[in-house]
Amino acid sequence: MRKHLKLSVVLATCALLLGVGVIGASASGDDESNNGRPSAILDSVRAHASNLADRLGISDDESPVAPGTLDDGQDLLPQAQISLEQAIEAAKAAQTGAIGEIDLEHFEGHLVFNVDVGDKDVKVDAQNGTVLSADSDD
Question: How far, in Å, CA of 33 to CA of 30, rounded?
């Protein structure tokens, strides 16, 4: 979900810049760029936004992962002291609901498995399996 928020911010920023650019071009009478076609300008902005999102590592081009599988944080897995299965069991003990994607990330100084359970994000300490929080899914 965080990627969706970051991607939304990038796209909103690009839309703002597009609006400023179109207003500026209209004010200056510059109809030559992109042949003056709004669709060409919009296509250009989309391409730049997609490129920027890819560079920032927040593009939404990833295929959705199967529920109960690790989505982000594969590179942190060797640092975890508990298994993915143990993290899922701890999260299920704290919350009820369908298991969604799982991320391995840093949270308040801890390496945690962030397990989507129903509409909650359950953060399970990757060192000892303690549930650190169960907040609304963001």
Answer: 7
- 78 and 115 Cβ atoms separated by less than 8 Å: no
Phi, psi of 8, deg, nearest 5: -60, -40
- What string of pLDDT tens digits covers the 138 residues of the chain? 555 556 566 556 656 665 655 555 544 444 444 455 667 777 777 776 666 665 665 655 556 778 888 889 999 999 999 999 999 999 999 999 999 999 999 999 999 999 999 999 999 999 999 999 998 865
Q: Are 87 and 126 in contact (CB under 8 A)?
A: yes
Count Cβ neighbours within 10 Å for each residue of 88-115 and write b for 16 or more, e otherwise.
bebbeebbeeebbbbbbbebeeebbbbb
The DSSP bridge pattern shows strands 131-136 and 70-72 to be unpaired
